[in-house]
Amino acid sequence: MCEDLCVLGLVEYKRCLYYENGKKVMEARWRGKPIILKSKLENFSSYEPLGMLDYPDTSEDLSPLDVVFYATLEVRNSLGLAEEEEDDEGGGGGGNSSLARLWGKKLKNREKVYSRAELASLWSLLQQEEYTFLRVLQDLSTHVAKVLGSCGHFYAVEYLSAGHAWDQNIFSLDEVSVSGQGQGGAQRWTARQMVHRIALSFLDMVWHFDHDFTHRLHLCDIKPENFAIRKDLTVVAIDVDMAFFEPKMRDILDQNCTSDDDCNFFDCSSRCNTHRRRCSPQRRNSNLQVICEKIFRPWFSPTLLGAKAGLPLQVELQRAVQECSETDGAEEKDEGGEKGRAWDIHQRLLNILTRLLQEGGASSEGGGAWEGKRHSHTALNF
């Protein structure tokens, strides 16, 4: 990307989308296509330098595998994943090789050594938690924004229009390029049918983040502006500054407290043990619960549904969403160890939304919906 930006002039700035406390988010065009440019801190000098670059001829002595090794250590630190947790959490021991495959595949395949500028740039990027998350999850998830390139301390991600709380559909559906299949052939879906498919993709994302990695991935800042949809209606997390794997989530929640109010970390909360005056490290609520509260309840409220609000399936959906928003994430299993209320509610929502799509005449395939089948994802064995 640097050559296109600095030499060929193929990266064109369009406008600033966000600027606060040094964090910059900008819209640009790269080779004629829209992209988003991001950096956590305003200046390159604001990042901690790579200490080994203080020594002369360092870059000439580093092989691609050395770079992968140092990147691995920084990724572990950024995501809060310690080495000893591999065996404890089912990591299977192959953490370094797995991470090298996922993170350093292109780095290892390079024949030439890395310049000092490239190493300094990589180090500044690794200090940005969101970049680290997105790069690590690139080949593992369709529900995170794709990283397209980087230069210096800025990285480019795919351009997707964020959701808005003031939009009754949350997302702009004008540019969606999918259609259903009716008796007379292809037909464009209604806005309501597309909302149902997007809701199914939210359920797919929740299940994916909860079960498909070695550690559960917690989203602690759930709001429409932090999500987008692709043209096939797949839900994408575009702002993961407040996303944490289980080990780091437990460290964040494990704080002193006098009441439950002291145990809230944005959308992630736990309970206060008043005898120990310590918050439980286990999260009380869940990604699904917060999505039901902040996304699904406004979507499926009787006010927006109008005359359709009294239809049996719509009433059933409203009840399921209400129960979902009131069900703690800690209620994962019953006393016998079987799947509990949270799993049941997920299945009920999945079933109701699928039936609504079928009744609406839309196709029941595609769009990122979970549709009752398990996705096969490579585990994150750090």
Question: Count the strands?
Answer: 15
Structural class determined from secondary elements: alpha+beta
Strand content: 15-25%
Measured on Cα atoms, how large is the radius of gyration? 23 Å
The run of helices and strands is HEEEHHHHHHHEEEEHEEEEHEEEEHHHH
Summarize the structure.
The protein has 14 helices and 15 strands.
Structural summary, described in words:
- By secondary structure, the chain is of the alpha+beta class.
- It has 14 helices and 15 strands.
- It has helices spanning 2-6, 58-61, 64-79, 85-88, 95-103, 105-109, 116-126, 129-137, 191-211, 246-253, 287-299, 302-305, 312-325, 341-359, and strands at residues 11-20, 23-30, 33-39, 147-151, 154-158, 180-182, 185-187, 217-219, 227-229, 235-237, 243-245, 264-265, 268-269, 272-273, 278-279.
- It has a five-stranded antiparallel β-sheet with strand order 1-2-3-5-4.
- A hairpin with a 2-residue loop joins strand 12 and strand 13.
- Helix 3 crosses helix 5 (95-103) and helix 3 (64-79) runs parallel beside helix 7 (116-126).
- The longest helix has 21 residues, at 191-211.
- The radius of gyration is 23 Å and the shape is globular.
- The two termini are 29 Å apart.
- 35% of the residues are buried.
- Mean pLDDT is 82; it is low at 84-101, 334-338 and 362-382.
